[in-house]
Amino acid sequence: MSLSQKQRCRLQELAREAQAILGESKQPNDRPMTFAELEDASIEAGDFMTALMMQAEIESRGPATETPCCPTCEQVGELQTDEEARVLQTDRGEVTWLESTYYCRRCRRSFFPAVA
Ligand SMILES: [Zn+2]
User: Fold this and answer.
1) What is the residue extent of each domain of the chain?
2) Ligand 1 mean position, distance from CA 55 (Å)
3) pLDDT per residue as tens digits for the range 12-27
């Protein structure tokens, strides 16, 4: 995917906002951040934003099908009442979200539906 000009402009606005947020953290003696400190802070903020963006997108999606099937036997699962935390390790850190689980009576196991 490549970003459109409009997307780039909006992301530049967010980057200025992020820079203002990072600028609020004072260094000893109120000195400006060194280049290395600025790089570290920017990477940390970028990784944090990446994880939040992925989490928001994943949470907005529903299961791939209305009747998710067991990944082992492919029998239709039963929706469970409780959601469980699901964790995904990405290149930019851990992404966590809550997701419905399904239960397969044949295999006697819970499973997460495939994400669309
Ligand atoms: Zn099964």
Assistant:
1) 5-111
2) 28
3) 999 999 988 888 776 7
Q: CA nearest 104: which of 63, 70, 66, 67? A: 70
pTM over 0.70: no
**Count of CA atoms in the C-beta half-sphere (13 A) of 34:** 4
Sheet holding 93-104, edge to edge: 78-90, 93-104, 109-111
- Rounded to the nearest whole angstrom, what is the distance from the C-alpha of residue 70 to the centroid of ligand 1? 5
Q: Ligand 1: distance of its center to the CA of 85 in Å?
A: 21
